[in-house]
Amino acid sequence: MTLTTVPLFLPCTTFSPPHRRHVLLAGLSLLVSTPALAARTATEASASPIWPQAAAVPGGIARLDLGPAATRPIAHWGELPLLVLGDTTRWTALVGIALSTTPGPAHIAVQGEGDNQRQVGFTVAAKQYPVQKLKVAPGKVDLSAADEARFARERAHMTTVMATFTEPLPHPGQLRMAAPVAGRRSSSFGLRRVFNGQARSPHSGMDIAAAAGTPVLAPLPGRVIDIGDYFFGGNTVFMDHGGGLLSMVGHLSAIHAKVGDVVTVGDRVGSVGATGRATGPHLHWGVVLNRKMVDPALFLAS
Ligand code: ZN
Q1: Ligand 1 center from residue 72 Cα (angstroms)
Q2: Distance from the CA of 85 to the center of ligand 1, in angstroms?
């Protein structure tokens, strides 16, 4: 499939995962075959001052109790290392679930002390995200060969950035994030757009409306691990919050950080802008957990 874009659109479609055709077709067939919205359990829906909201659906997060252990267990979902937090009385794994994940039973592997290995199961429920079908002039859909090549290079680079896995931060307070900017938040995470019958990658983040120049702030303590001016995302900052939890902010008019900077909540990393593919000034905010883009709304404190 030809990579597609149009010059004018909101929400943006930055940072598509690799294998976009496969991802898209899987997602679309999911929509047809399983139209029911996922129901959250009462426990999952309850507000927590510490953990992100759990929602074991594509684009969501599974929160799995690993029980007590003298040392932090090591957990993987397939090859992906997972974020494990807690203390000796109770450890918890947080599992980021890709938008492309097929609903159904799943399990993670947990390595405890010695050779003790066990599996912890969970179920990925279906979730229907909206689909928007649009017709545009054919010349406005396809990327030029040069732009396709640039995007392919950047996607490979971002795949490497998104694989960053460092020691989990202590997170003494919480994992709930502060919004990087105040403003009206779109609920367009997961939105799938189809242009002239060609499916695009789903929207992988949250767009927040704010005036150009508004300070963009770190949502959690962390370290700046990547900055760049990318084709779709424009000026972008990636932050590592430890244990495979990252956040990125895009379309910035200016970047106020450099790689290696240690940030705490509220530190300025950039300014709202419209760089990259954006119709007007807004912030694109993405959250990565175990290399998968998950819904930032699940992390918001309010
Ligand atoms: Zn966006």
Answers
A1: 35
A2: 29
The last residue of a domain, from among 124, 148, 167 = 124
Provide, for the chain, the percentages of residues in helix, strand and coil under a 3-state DSSP scheme, each rounded to the nearest 5.
15, 35, 50
Residue 114 neighbours by CB under 8 Å, 6+ apart:
none
Q: Which pTM does this prediction carry?
A: 0.84
Tokens describing residue 196: 């002239």
- Tell me, what's the pLDDT at 139? 67
Question: Which of 78, 117, 97, 91 has the alpha carbon at shortest distance from 38?
Answer: 97
Ligand 1 centre from 158 Cα, in Å? 16
Q: Are residues 135 and 116 in the same domain?
A: no
C-alpha 285 – ligand 1 centre gap (Å): 7
Same domain? 68 vs 196: no
Does residue 48 form part of some domain? yes
Count of structural domains, the chain? 2
What's the chain's length in residues?
Answer: 302
Give domain status of residue 165, yes or no.
yes
pLDDT tens digits, one per residue of 19-77: 333 333 333 332 322 223 333 333 343 445 688 999 999 999 999 999 999 999 999 99
Which is nearest to 64 in space by CA: 39, 82, 48?
A: 82
Please indicate, yes or no, whether residues 146 and 283 belong to a single structural domain of this protein: yes
Tell me if 182 is assigned to some domain. Answer: yes
Report, as ranges of residue numbers, the positions in the chain whose pLDDT lies below 50: 1-10, 13-47
CA of 206 to the centre of ligand 1 (A): 6
Structural domain including 292 reads 131-299
In a domain, 3, yes or no: no
Task: Enter the tokens of residue 44.
Answer: 């999952």
